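During the reporting period the student researcher (J.K.) took over the structure-prediction task from the postdoctoral fellow and processed the backlog of single-chain submissions. One of the processed entries is reproduced below for the supervisory committee.
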Amino acid sequence: MPTRVLTISKPYVSASNRKKFEIMSRSSEWEIGLICPNKWANIEYESSLSEKDSGYWSRQLPIKFNGKNHFHFYLGLKRAIAEFKPDILNVEEEHYSFVTYQVFKIAKSMKIPCLFFAWQNIHKRYPLPFRMIEQYVFRNSALAVVGNDSAEASIRLKGYKGEFFHVPQVGVDISMYQRTTPAMKANARSLLGIDPDTFVVLGAGRIVEEKGFQTLIDAATHLLHRNVKILILGSGSYFETLQSLVDRHKLQSRVTLIPFVPSTEMPKYFKASDVMCLPSLTRANWKEQGPTRVISEAMASGINVLVSDSGELPSVVDDAGLTFREGNPKDLASKIERMMDSDSLRQELIQIALDRVNRKFSAEAVAKKNLEMFDLVKTKLNVRSH
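J.K. obtained the following structure tokens:
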């Protein structure tokens, strides 16, 4: 009998994030299930054409406190878990979140081993009740799954005594991306109304202060002598502030802000771009945590990546891209110019990035690591299949 593993997590409202489940379900040794919200923040669950033939069981449930990262919880969750009858529960949420506590309480009542996933790379002492939640989760977890070394170090300091497993959370669906050719770039730019000779820098993600897109806009003021166009895609509380910054610097012809774009439409923006930039800023309560989707997708698309030195970003990109000092628009502008002026450098970095994303961040690589992780739990706890 195959071992039944049920994952519960919010990122999978995006169709491009679910490829790993399709890949894992191809193994006859495992029955794979997924529960995610029917909506997260302003993102409705994205259906995909291959969903009916995906091979894994899935349910989308309503949640309370939509968009509240560590406060949300599911309605009808226990009933859905009972329907799937998992042998292992995998909640890909931080150890101090209400939803993690919800899943762990259900797991304990149903006598199912449960895992949690941690990105949090800043050591914090949480207020009640979050401190009680994390200790409950630590006591009852079969395994701690982490996306970076800093998360493991923090959890150890907080008293977790169990085993750890390192794996990126999502993985890039390589089939959605192709190495961008000159013809593909010209066509994408034509569709978006971008001059074919312009050097295009793309930024994408949550539009909040800590993502640092204001640094990218400020960098544009140092590039007025060059034919550079900056596209920033996303939505969030900082959108109007960024637009005001563009207007104040009179950069309307140089910088374009585009509200939320579905994940399935991102490939056309990658094709139109030369460089993907993530200019994150470290804050007292936050720093970039790991292999963000947009960077991995850019690598898979064969465009260059340029990141700040915030948190885990330098270790994610390694020698596959360039790094600049966070919050320093002059340094960012100089790195953009360096890429503009050296086609040989750009081609070398693209090749390194393609190899790196296939080995470490592709959906195939992440699916393989996930099955190794589930097998570890199965062997360790002598889990018996239903």
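The committee noted the following: DSSP finds 14 helices and 17 strands in the chain.
J.K. will present the remaining backlog at the next meeting.
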